[in-house]
Amino acid sequence: xxxxxxxxxxxxxxxxxxxxxxxxxxxxxxxxxxxxxxxxxxxxxxxxxxxxxxxxxxxxxxxxxxxxxxxxxxxxxxxxxxxxxxxxxxxxxxxxxxxxxxxxxxxxxxxxxxxxxxxxxxxxxxxxxxxxxxxxxxxxxxxxxxxxxxxxxxxxxxxxxxxxxxxxxxxxxxxxxxxxxxxxxxxxxxxxxxxxxxxxxxxxxxxxxxxxxxxxxxxxxxxxxxxxxxxxxxxxxxxxxxxxxxxxxxxxxxxxxxxxxxxxxxxxxxxxxxxxxxxxxxxxxxxxxxxxxxxxxxxxxxxxxx
Length: 306
Known about the structure:
Elements: H1 6-29, H2 67-72, E1 82-85, E2 93-98, E3 102-108, H3 112-127, E4 136-138, E5 146-152, E6 155-162, E7 165-171, H4 180-194, E8 206-215, E9 222-228, E10 233-240, E11 244-250, E12 259-266, E13 274-281, E14 284-288, E15 292-293, E16 295-301
Antiparallel strand pairs: 1-2, 2-3, 3-7, 4-5, 5-6, 6-7, 8-11, 8-13, 9-10, 9-12, 12-16, 13-14, 13-15
């Protein structure tokens, strides 16, 4: 037998080392019967999502969207670290914010009528800061009752309503160069898939009744002016014959709920002719006035404590 040289021993040692490394790699790449190691497996997909509790939003619902969802939509966002519920017992509004001016907002109205009124109210406010008409689009999300996309101050925003749920998404400076419309529709689409909030009515809008009466019953033509809380605009009616009644529905605006003001005066002021007004909300008298000569006024604010 040929004697083993130092060179042979070195080669044999290298071969043994290579085999040992190969065995370690094989063991690391297998978990039992040849399956990938557990550390290489994707985490299980989430099967449940936070929902309203007793008909109210919770801060956990900010987790309806996460950084992975933004990434899959071609956008960038951190987890929402600022979560704010609307003040008051109703808790109808929720704001979720992360660095870079990324916002997710939710508002849960008790029924589709209230939802539509609140959606319109929001759009009137957003419209004041919206970009040119060429950057505005309506009805961009299939399956939603209403949707509106626009360039706004410091970013782009999509607002969507389904039933009583209104969802808003805002991209800030962290996402300047993305397809904002495609990303926003995909992300809000995920929100609507993950919660059924707003699809079942849990209440009604506020029912408002305004009345003006006279003494005598028909004292002559009357000019009436009232503040519409849905549009926050003054509405005027000239030369009205009494008694006069106006009924309309109002959304649940929470702490931002505008007041209601009602004024009435005789078109031609006359002695010994009196006017009286009243404001009723949900069958409860909000304000009324004592008879006043030629002029009367009532005012109040809807309570959101219910």
